# Entry
Amino acid sequence: MFDLKSITRKNILALKPYTSAREDFKGEADIWLDANESPFQSEVNRYPDPYQQEVKALISPIKGIPRENIFLGNGSDEVIDLLFRAFCEPNRDKALLLPPTYGMYKVSAEINAVALESVPLTADFQIDIPKIKPLLRDKCLKLIFICSPNNPSGNLIKREAIREIVENFHGIVVVDEAYIDFASEGSMLGEIRNIPNLLIIQTFSKAWGMAGIRLGMAFGSQEILDILNKIKPPYNINTLSQNLAIEKLKQIEQKNREVAKILEQRKKLNDQLQTLNQVVKVWPSNTNFLLVQFTDPKKVYKKLSAIGTIVRDRSHEVADCLRITIGTVEENQRLINQLKAIENEESTLYR
Ligand SMILES: *Cc1c(COP(=O)(O)O)cnc(C)c1O
# Structure
């Protein structure tokens, strides 16, 4: 059912990509006079590896995915943008979103003049399969974005539902696993081998603690990744980001310890929030944040920000909810103290 060529934009299929100096010649050499770089050595005087082979070689055993099935983007946001540019003809093709979900899919679609279909998640934030099924036959529908664990609801999407969509769709299903390291259930990475129209995206911005280096990962068939590689800016991941990622990947223990701490804090914060009168509900979380329903979220948001604590107001997406990232032990404790003070209308005491 899935035929990549038939869903790829014609101009992209026909494109002859830019070839960088480093691709033209691949062997060993001492004198590099091919790229108009400065000859004066520093960490950054040479152009970076356009395919980030060293970074991918370290990611590969961690994820159990061969190098050729890994693509790196300047943040997941670049991967999302490249997908629209590769597969969606502006002002003709469409993508499907399942709100409430990550805001960047919509922004990226709008930048690329791609129309959106939208099928809200059910009351327990799962996929509404009967509503989606009829849309899957639309030849102009090219991409479906499924965020699991979902931002901002924090839950995992049921795997059988994702499989059902993938199997009945001629386009690409993107499963965004930005928060997968915080989840109780494993990733769908193992399935990319068997499912040609599944693309999984992950990121260094959350569990890896490296939002500042802008590094996103995509895992999928070599066929799909060839197209992304063809259209990406040649040097999309800069040398400094590659070097920092390499260092970090060699210290996976540190990441694992930090994730464990966040999970412990998530449980504690959850328990403490449940005791507050102004908290209606804390949604179960498989992420590094909690979605919390308040009796008066606007008031809580305003009072917290007035004393220098910023949370995310999601009340326009999920009624009466604020999204709270898990911080350090101290930050979480201060947040709880501040919320208690707000309950007692003494917020100014807790700066
Ligand atoms: C934070 C987040 C990302 C990360 O995006 P980057 O561009 O890699 O920083 C991706 N998807 C979701 C759902 C997120 O919440």
